[in-house]
Design a protein that fits this description.
Elements: H1 3-7, H2 30-37, E1 55-61, H3 66-70, H4 77-80, E2 92-95, H5 102-111, H6 115-118, E3 124-126, E4 133-135, H7 145-148, H8 154-160, E5 164-169, H9 177-183, E6 187-190, H10 194-206, E7 211-217, H11 219-227, H12 232-249, E8 256-262, E9 267-268, E10 276-278, H13 283-286, E11 289-295, E12 298-303, H14 308-319, E13 323-327, H15 328-333, H16 343-346, E14 352-356, E15 361-363, E16 376-377, H17 383-386, E17 387-394
Parallel strand pairs: 1-7, 1-8, 5-6, 5-7, 10-15
Antiparallel strand pairs: 2-17, 3-4, 8-17, 9-16, 11-12, 12-14, 13-14
Bound molecules: zinc ion.
Zinc ion binds near residues 102, 221, 225 and 378.
Length: about 400
């Protein structure tokens, strides 16, 4: 009779959100840990159990969450062999960081800092200097990169310490502001195909006695957004990227370690009004809101001055148990963006921050017509989007 009591979820307080493991098991901890192993000064090895290697390669697969990888052993036999198991794999999940989105995560990888410090805390955020929304993936409108994110990257610090450092990615990323603030240091090698990227990454890895190489593949995320996790095109991409990982693993030079990771996972959201709440059609959610930022599963809400607490109350009432809804100060105090927030970053965060708990979205059919039609989505703190693989191959 009372059995349902045991199944009740945790009460939906801001504190009940499963915050990323900054400083012990997050994406931002990876490069500093590898850098310590290569004797780069002033770095902290917060993923302490990784054994040092002279040559380190990070392969970041956009959108491949830990749960999605675990659910598809047939499509990803090589990566599956690297999971923690009786077969001796050491792979495990780490957390992406909040929000679980590409611009935020690439900045976390490259700077080794959580979002509250590097200052890219969302897909779109308000620029306090102009009052306008800024898209941090596309860098629109243009904003001076070195002012927006002033910290050096781990690549720059490694390069300065004499480590051979390189990035291998699609040619069109070479001169983007996001590459500049997140990935610069050493040399960038643009290669169109996945195979060419793997071969160049292996070549660059061998080019120094100590080396740090980053490489990237985008289309698992692309197919997931368009067709959904588990769709045929998504599975095809997973099979392809699994072969890429194997190709790179088989070319590792001596004294090398390859780490396969991702920037976030993904979750499919059904196409109905219960799961997709349209901000542009919802007068209650719009009341008192000056700007809507973030993305469907991780919203930054910027209130008209004076309306902050009314917006918070209203969003909590409308969204109920489907979202964790926090004021800026509550989200910061709960550690969503990291252990501390740089002063320049504070007002980039919404007056209200809403993170999806269920398979739901706050779409914006007029403001964001393309994004509102995506099948697969990400951004929040659920395991499906927050947990990413950390797989290791050593030569
Ligand atoms: Zn994406």
């Amino acid at each position: 009779m009372s059995q349902h009591v045991w199944d009740d979820p945790e009460p939906l307080t801001v504190e009940s959100a499963p915050v990323p493991e900054y400083g012990s098991g997050s994406l931002a901890d990876l490069l500093p840990t590898l850098a310590v192993g290569m004797d780069v000064p002033d770095m902290t090895a917060s993923l302490g159990e990784l054994s040092p290697a002279d040559r380190n390669c990070v392969f970041l697969i956009d959108g491949l969450g830990w749960e999605q990888l675990k659910a598809h052993p047939d499509e990803a036999p090589f990566m599956t062999s690297l999971l923690g198991s009786s077969r001796g794999g050491t792979g495990r999940p780490i957390t992406a960081g909040y929000p679980a989105t590409t611009a935020t995560s690439l900045a976390s990888v490259g700077t080794g800092l959580p979002p509250g410090a590097h200052g890219l805390p969302g897909y779109t955020v308000r620029n306090p200097e102009t009052g306008e929304l800024m898209n941090q993936l596309r860098w629109i409108p243009w904003t001076k990169p070195g002012t927006w994110q002033p910290y050096p990257t781990v690549f720059q610090l490694a390069d300065a310490a004499g480590v051979h450092t390189a990035q291998v990615s699609a040619p069109h990323f070479q001169n983007t502001p996001l590459t500049k603030i997140a990935l610069s240091g050493g040399t960038f090698h643009g290669r169109l195909t996945g195979e060419d990227r793997m071969d160049m990454a292996a070549e660059q890895l061998a080019a120094g006695d100590r080396s740090l190489v980053y490489t990237y593949y985008a289309e698992v995320d692309g197919k997931g957004h368009r067709f959904g996790v588990d769709s045929d095109p998504w599975r095809g991409q997973l099979m392809y990227v699994d072969r890429l990982v194997q190709r790179l693993a088989e070319q590792l030079p001596p004294r090398a370690a390859l780490y396969v990771t991702a920037d976030h996972g993904m979750i499919d959201v059904p196409f109905d009004e219960q799961h997709r709440i349209d901000f542009d059609e919802d007068w209650e959610l719009r009341a008192g809101v000056a700007l809507l930022g973030g993305e469907g599963r991780a919203r930054h809400v910027y209130a008209v001055p004076g309306a902050e607490s009314d917006v918070l109350t209203c969003w909590r009432e409308v969204l109920g148990e489907q979202f964790w809804v926090a004021s800026r100060d509550e989200a910061i105090a709960a550690g969503w963006f990291g252990p501390h927030i740089d002063e320049r970053v504070y007002a980039r965060i919404g007056d209200v921050v809403a993170a999806a708990r269920d398979d739901v979205l706050i779409t914006a059919s007029e403001r964001e017509p393309k994004e509102s039609l995506m099948v697969g989505n990400h951004g929040s703190m659920t395991s499906a989007e927050q947990h990413i693989p950390l797989l290791e191959v050593r030569s």
